[in-house]
TrEMBL record:
This is Phospholipid/glycerol acyltransferase domain-containing protein. InterPro entries: Acyltransf_C, Plipid/glycerol_acylTrfase. The keyword Transferase applies. PANTHER family: 1-ACYLGLYCEROL-3-PHOSPHATE ACYLTRANSFERASE-RELATED (PTHR10983), LYSOCARDIOLIPIN ACYLTRANSFERASE 1 (PTHR10983:SF16). Signal peptide: none annotated. Belongs to the 1-acyl-sn-glycerol-3-phosphate acyltransferase family. It comes from Metarhizium brunneum.
Length: 421
């Protein structure tokens, strides 16, 4: 259940800084204390139940991924028949993975999602009947965010599902190259057209240019109207999720270059996003920025240390709330003609993001939604209908049924021929 109603005011109901940091009022101890209390409380399950939850989670996720990879393999020949059919088919399988992780989170790691934003996104984040949310973000945009924990992308992909029109089949993520070697998942992400980066621009730039060129190709519909395919390109300019080691490297870089070191985020890397925006600037109008915060991460601690896979999905201790604060920037207003000016602009946005994180730590909430009917839209990661997950298995099930009938038919023919002989 949501901790706060949508029309509650943050002043009267926001948790104190100590509660927001993961401590009870009578347990104001430092984050490095050996008496640190997990912000989501004690484990909701004993060891035996955690093992069962882990097995169920593994079976569900593996089977869904297997079904998606089989579906992709069945449709792969379309690449040589009709490229438009191929990309539309793979977009459908991308939707299937979005459904997989949405249902996974709803069952094993449920959390309140509290959403707000400034005046630039007014009217684009709407509460729906039944406690849901609807986003009205454009069909083509670049999305950037701070990187708190490994699964930030999961919540941002779900935003694509909750958007109107649905964009969960048209999201593209820039990833570390090592991720493509993960069994099943790595293969699937290559079919999805995700962009792998080695963090060496000399190597990455030709690959990046090739992929972005595909995303900005102009199409012509039967009536002769020009259009571009839907696309959400997701980047994490910090390069990796916030961690003790990453925090140290960011501080060293700031000191070396005489820069202010932010407290709650890492200094962003501008080269990759500068290249992407320049490649896409004639086909995309906006950059959407999301600041992500998880309830219960105290100062001096890092999300990966608290909300890991076991804690969130097996022990029943997901974040009590996932907080998303949105801003929008026009590409026309971003300095894309000069790398140094862009670097300053991006760093300034990260300092503002750091200030938002500081406000969150003090008040337990980001600023309220500007221009909305409610101050915050509060919901959870879920599908609109429980049966949507069956989409994941539709193609594989249909192919299996057809194969069964063909084998039966051939067996019948063979039997008749044998009888005649």
């Amino acid at each position: 259940m949501p901790e706060f109603a949508e029309n509650d005011s943050p002043e009267s109901n926001a948790p104190t800084p100590e509660i927001a940091a993961g401590f009870k009022n009578d347990e104001k101890q430092p984050a490095n204390s050996s008496r640190f209390v997990h912000p989501s409380g004690k484990s909701g399950h004993g060891l035996g139940m955690q093992i069962l939850r882990g097995i169920a989670f593994t079976v569900y996720f593996t089977f869904c991924c297997f079904a998606i990879v089989v579906t992709q393999t069945i449709g792969a020949p379309l690449y040589f028949i009709n490229r438009e059919w191929f990309y539309a088919y793979m977009a459908m399988t991308k939707q299937s993975f979005a459904l997989t992780i949405t249902v996974m989170t709803h069952i094993w790691g449920p959390a309140l999602v509290r959403i707000s934003g400034d005046e630039s996104v007014a009217g684009q984040i709407l509460a729906t009947p039944g406690g849901g949310v609807e986003f009205k973000f454009p069909e083509r945009m670049v999305m950037i965010a701070n990187h708190q924990i490994y699964t930030d992308w999961l919540y941002l992909w779900w935003v694509g599902y909750a958007n109107r029109p649905g964009m969960h089949g048209h999201i593209y993520i820039i990833l570390k190259e090592s991720l493509k070697y993960i069994p099943f998942i790595g293969t699937g992400m290559m079919f999805y057209g995700f962009i792998y980066m080695s963090r060496k621009m000399a190597t990455d730039q030709p690959r990046l240019a090739y992929r972005l060129n595909k995303l900005k190709q102009k199409k012509i519909d039967p009536s002769g109207r020009a259009y571009f395919d839907p696309m959400w390109l997701l980047l994490f300019p910090e390069g990796t999720n916030l961690s003790r080691n990453g925090r140290k490297k960011s501080s060293q870089w700031a000191e070396k270059n005489g820069l202010k070191d932010p407290d709650h985020v890492m200094l962003p890397r501008s080269t990759g996003i500068f290249f992407c925006l320049n490649e896409l600037k004639d086909t995309v109008d906006y950059v959407y920025d999301c600041t992500v915060a998880y309830e219960g991460i105290p100062r001096g601690k890092y999300g990966e240390e608290i909300f890991g896979l076991a804690s969130t999905y097996f022990q029943g201790r997901p974040p009590k709330s996932v907080n998303l604060y949105w801003r929008r920037f026009r590409l026309a207003d971003i300095p894309l003609n000069d790398q140094k000016e862009f670097d300053i602009w991006l760093r300034d946005q990260w300092y503002k993001k750091d200030a938002l994180m500081e406000e969150y730590l003090k008040k337990g909430r980001f600023p309220a939604l500007t221009g909305g009917k409610t101050e915050y839209v509060e919901t959870e990661v879920r599908t609109r209908h429980p049966w949507e997950i069956l989409q994941v298995f539709t193609v594989m099930g249909t192919a299996g049924l057809l194969w069964h009938n063909v084998r039966k038919f051939l067996s019948t023919i063979a039997a008749k021929v044998g009888t005649m002989v």
